[in-house]
Amino acid sequence: MYEGRDSLWIFDVGCGEQAAERINRLPGKKRVAISHFHQDHMGNLPRISREELYLGRYTLRHAGAGQVVEAPMEPEPGLRLFPIPSSHAKGCLGMEVGGRYAFLGDAAYSTRVDGRIRYNATLLQDTIRTLEALSAPWFLLSHGEPFARPKEEVLEELREIYTRRAQGEAYIDLE
């Protein structure tokens, strides 16, 4: 969450009833940004009250409504929403706040294709470029510990994975 100028910004709403209840108890206006279409990130959308919803085009197919973010935008000073190319899910969205933190959702994670854990090499390269361009020194990832990681640590890990790409191969297998 990020306390904006006149509203509370919530990045992803989870899928459990308890999370929905907590969000609905928060005072004031709420604006929601959804990182991607997976249920653990957007499942509570029907249960929560909000003023606005921001998401990627692919996520819109699953959510049914909302403002699509196709290019970086600044809905208010100090808060920037931006698309992130990702192997994990189509249409990922990130949120950079105060030039200090960037919420990435699952955008830096791999996916499972044909039973293998892997990255799409082209998308991984695009993910790295997008993340390199961010000014925030801290990245906030949805799963695992620690939740907040230094930007350079995340980028170093992704660059190392990219070096494993076999020439001419579209995917980088992690198994």
Q: Can you put this structure into words, describing what you see?
A:
The structure is a single chain. The protein has 175 residues and is α/β, with parallel strands linked by helices. The chain has a single domain, classed as Ribonuclease Z/Hydroxyacylglutathione hydrolase-like (Metallo-beta-lactamase, Chain A, 4-Layer Sandwich), CATH 3.60.15.10. It contains five helices and 14 strands. It has helices spanning 17-25, 39-42, 57-63, 121-132, 151-163; strands at residues 2-3, 8-11, 30-33, 52-55, 67-68, 73-76, 79-84, 92-97, 101-105, 111-113, 116-120, 138-141, 148-150, 171-173. It has a six-stranded mixed beta sheet with strand order 6-7-8-9-12-13. Strands 1-2-3-4-5 form a five-stranded mixed beta sheet. A hairpin with a 2-residue loop joins strand 10 (111-113) and strand 11. Helix 4 runs antiparallel to helix 5 (151-163).
Kindly identify the CATH topology.
Metallo-beta-lactamase, Chain A
Span between termini: 34 Å
Number of domains: 1
Structural class, from helix and strand content?
A: alpha/beta
CATH class: Alpha Beta
Give the % helix: 25-40%
CATH superfamily: Ribonuclease Z/Hydroxyacylglutathione hydrolase-like
Low-confidence stretches: none
